[in-house]
């Protein structure tokens, strides 16, 4: 990972409520001091105005896109400086503005973010990720757990906790239901709102809405279409957000269901055979077998709460289906190898794209198969 990316982690991401959760693994006071940056960790929830000041102080602007077509001096409407044979000359061009495309640039740096069709509509970060939720909750005092602008502002997310941290006596888990709002300016993400929970013991992002999320009202997506800013569409978003806020706490029921299901050591091995299968010696190289076995060993260390990077994160859930889901999710967050990006960047990407939800669903699907409980995955 380049130094620029490491610096971006200190600059473009805010982590809140650190009195009750671990600091981010990329927390680097020395780098921030060298760059003259403020601390990006907050003991309490992040104030609304801090998110705007530090992340959303600039605006995305829609600007015309044009082609510079070489032409004669007589037909030119601009002369473009260009090096020719080692000398700078003014090349005559005609600026041809496109009526089918538009550019998106940052208002603070004029940096180009993306090119879209003329039908594309900007979903302003503050308007969609903060102001919409303040109207639903009826207060600007949002309990903001985290916020960031990945890809240098091409994406954005805000994670807002519901008013109360929940404790479940049956599972022994403390968790914070939250609403994750995310969007993008480069077309990589639709504007999405979804309900999930943050497990306090390990700081894992978790969405146990395992059964048809969209039908259960726990996720809403809005495309950047020409009608997305119409008043009736905004009202649709507000209505969906109200449903999401009401259903976020229902993850308790799913956690309790999984915690009530016993998983023996024999069944645990069968689940592992599905999640991380060990190839047969005749079908794979010794290297492939060793890699798979090392993965499984490290996952089992997480499950038994003896892995040095995740000690104390299992919440004594071993021997239950919840413990298996917890172990796999924790392993993917903190242990599984990363390639081409930092662990934090990978985890943020998986959170925004729903890949952590897919991981949880795959684990529950394996449990349903081994335990012969198809009701775990049926709506």
| Mean pLDDT level | 83
How many individual domains?
Answer: 3
Strand content: 15-25%
Name the helix and strand elements from N-terminus to C-terminus, one letter apiece.
Answer: HEHHEEEEHEHEEEEEHEHHHHHHH
Cα gyration radius (Å): 24 Å
The count of DSSP E runs of length 2 or more, i.e. the number of strands, is: 12
Helix content: 25-40%
Outline: globular
Report the total helices.
13
Described by strand count, sense and barrel closure, the largest sheet is: 8 strands, antiparallel
Structural class determined from secondary elements: alpha+beta
Terminal Cα separation, in Å?
42 Å
Poorly predicted runs: 205-217
How would you portray this structure in words?
A hairpin with a 5-residue loop joins strand 4 (87-106) and strand 5 (112-117). By secondary structure, the chain is of the alpha+beta class. 37% of the residues lie in helices and 24% in strands. The chain has helices spanning 3-11, 29-35, 48-54, 125-137, 150-153, 213-216, 231-247, 251-259, 265-275, 286-303, 321-334, 343-353, 355-371; strands at 13-15, 60-70, 78-84, 87-106, 112-117, 143-148, 155-161, 166-168, 173-184, 191-199, 204-206, 219-222. The relative contact order is 0.10. Strands 1, 6, 7, 8, 9, 10, 11 and 12 form an eight-stranded antiparallel sheet that branches. The model is unreliable at 205-217 (pLDDT under 50).
Throw out a few tags for this protein:
379 residues; alpha+beta; eight-stranded antiparallel β-sheet; 13 helices; 37% helix; globular
Record the SSE blueprint:
Blueprint (H helix, E strand, L loop, with lengths): L2 H9 L1 E3 L13 H7 L12 H7 L5 E11 L7 E7 L2 E20 L5 E6 L7 H13 L5 E6 L1 H4 L1 E7 L4 E3 L4 E12 L6 E9 L4 E3 L6 H4 L2 E4 L8 H17 L3 H9 L5 H11 L10 H18 L17 H14 L8 H11 L1 H17 L8
Antiparallel strand pairs: 1-6, 2-4, 3-4, 4-5, 6-7, 7-9, 8-9, 9-10, 10-11, 10-12
Helix pairs in contact: 4-7, 9-13, 10-11, 11-13
């Amino acid at each position: 990972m380049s130094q620029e990316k490491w610096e971006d982690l200190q600059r473009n991401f805010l982590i809140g409520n650190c009195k009750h959760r671990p600091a981010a693994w990329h927390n680097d006071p020395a780098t921030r001091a060298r760059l003259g940056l403020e601390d990006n960790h907050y003991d309490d929830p992040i104030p609304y105005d801090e998110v705007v000041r530090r992340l959303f102080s600039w605006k995305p602007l829609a600007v015309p896109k044009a082609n510079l077509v070489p032409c004669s001096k007589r037909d030119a409407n601009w002369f473009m400086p260009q090096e020719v044979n080692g000398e700078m000359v003014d090349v005559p061009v005609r600026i041809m503005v496109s009526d089918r495309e538009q550019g998106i640039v940052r208002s603070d740096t004029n940096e180009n973010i993306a090119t879209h069709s003329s039908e594309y509509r900007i979903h302003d970060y503050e308007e969609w990720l903060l102001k919409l939720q303040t109207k639903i909750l009826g207060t600007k005092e949002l309990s903001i757990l985290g916020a960031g602008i990945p890809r240098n502002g091409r994406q954005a997310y805000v994670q807002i906790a519901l008013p109360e941290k929940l404790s479940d006596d049956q599972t022994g888990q403390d968790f914070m239901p939250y609403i994750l709002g995310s969007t993008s300016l480069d077309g990589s993400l639709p504007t999405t709102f979804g309900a999930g929970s943050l497990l306090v013991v390990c700081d894992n992002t978790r969405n146990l809405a395992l059964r048809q999320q969209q039908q259960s009202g726990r996720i809403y997506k809005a495309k950047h279409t020409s009608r997305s800013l119409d008043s009736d569409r905004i009202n649709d978003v507000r209505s969906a957000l109200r449903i999401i806020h009401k259903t976020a706490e229902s993850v308790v029921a799913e956690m309790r269901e999984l915690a009530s299901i016993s998983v023996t050591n024999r069944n645990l091995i069968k689940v592992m055979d599905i999640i991380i299968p060990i190839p047969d010696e005749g079908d794979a190289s010794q290297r492939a077998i060793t890699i798979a076995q090392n993965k499984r060993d490290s996952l089992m260390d997480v499950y038994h709460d003896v892995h040095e990077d995740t000690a104390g994160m299992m919440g004594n859930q071993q021997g239950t289906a919840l413990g298996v889901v917890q172990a796999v999710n924790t392993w993917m967050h903190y242990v599984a190898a990363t390639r081409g990006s930092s662990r934090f960047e990978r985890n943020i990407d998986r959170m925004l794209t729903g890949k952590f939800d897919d991981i949880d669903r795959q684990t529950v699907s394996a449990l349903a198969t081994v335990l012969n409980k198809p009701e775990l995955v049926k709506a």
